[in-house]
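Bench notes, afternoon.
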Amino acid sequence: MKILAIGDFHGTFPKKFERLIKKEKIDLVVSNGDFFPFIYRDVWFTHCYRTDVNLWDVIGRKKYVALVKKDLKLGDRALHALNKVPVPVITVVGNIDYTSLQDSYDERPPKEDLRRQDLLNPLLRNYKNIYRFDYSYFVFGNYVFIGAYGGSSPGLVKSRHYKKYRKKLEVLFKRFKGKKIIFVSHNVPYNTKLDKIGRHAHVAVRGKHYGSKLIRRVIDRWQPLVHLGGHIHEGRGKQTLGKTLCVNPGAAHEGQAAVITLNAEKVKVTFIN
């Protein structure tokens, strides 16, 4: 079986992947999310990152809402293109995918924060070929795909949400114990070569490991056959944790992905540029 592992679309699904799916005879597309471009990223990082400042207080509520609407429209283009591929698409949610899901912290965002509202699902309902499965599962052939999120940072292991979603994953892994499991999340596991922030990032996180502690714990404990994640664009590559092959395919909007060839317990990874 061949999988196209892809994610971090940020508003685009390059046409070369449509051709690749046909040429390589891909059976299934597995997405780690981040469909939207986050067009107000720079102003958000300048004024809001690691502060108590809200973006709508900086640029005004009207402009903020207009930017979100434009962001949603651009992300919907990527979803529309992805929905047209001739094979099934399964996905987990990304950290800029307009969702209320939070599995690593207990914070309650203000109601004005549209990034923390469930605006993705109404769009997904228009696309019958895309199946969202974070904290659920998807059976395809002889493999079980278990989905998660992992947030955008390491998370707090003592938080209520961390414990809640860790238990959800434990239930799923226990249910499919002995099966060939492909674990999929948006973020990659913590403290690996796949999660180190590059030198062009915000000074507060530059050079640090920023993968998910939740995802790392689950991999260490349950040892799935493969883990597919993303989020850290510069962490593209593969690494083995115990018996688990972890793959970060890179960013789709930069033309990057990975073809995963599965043959029983054997796994081959081919990175696409």
